[in-house]
Amino acid sequence: MTPGPGVTKNPGKSAAMGKERDHVYSHSFSSANSTLLEHFGRKEMSERAREMLRSAATIEFLESPSRISLGQPIKVRLRVSNTGAGHKLPTGFPEGREVWVDFKVVDSDGREVYRLGAIRDGHTEKGTKSFKAILGNSKGEVVDINVWEADRLLSDTRILPDGHAYVEYAFTVGGVVRGPLLIRADLYYWPSPQHVVDELLGKGAMKVDIVRMGSVSKEIPLTSASSTGRGR
Fold first, then answer.
1. What residue numbers bound the domain in which 96 lies?
2. Structural domain count, the chain
């Protein structure tokens, strides 16, 4: 019950008539739904929610190449750890909340040569490395709007408290690419996909606030391909 992420000392009084204490514990709770707080103009509280989300998880490289060669298979492995949520990451209503990795490789000219984890039409794109629970109906179909039809859990990739999950990416780099390459993985959260909010409230009624919980990146040299003259 700390006053905020990373706050370990909070001297003062817990009540107006109380005695001075070395540390006063907080009995207020920050939600993770910065979208609603932002929508209703509660700027300070929405930023507090973002701070809490940024303190809840970490992302790190476990395996990545020291160099990249054009046309050669590349593998990158990362670990996402639930370091501060105190419950499954994410928690709450499973038809909405999602944590995911947006992984991209960009060359020195800013060209995107590989990406997985972008938002397409209000969804995270197919194949995205996501952490969430997915509900289903009696036919085994995904349910994300008519939740009263859900009678089963199709999958659950949420990360347990103090737990972690591994994600891997396998790809090749081709075409006209200028090195070095920047590999970046951003860990994002939203309380509900934009398409769900658009369906329930109408398109444009509320913009979902996407919070970057963490990020990791590294620059990797690109090996020259003398046979093609591409890559520097």
1. 34-119+131-221
2. 1
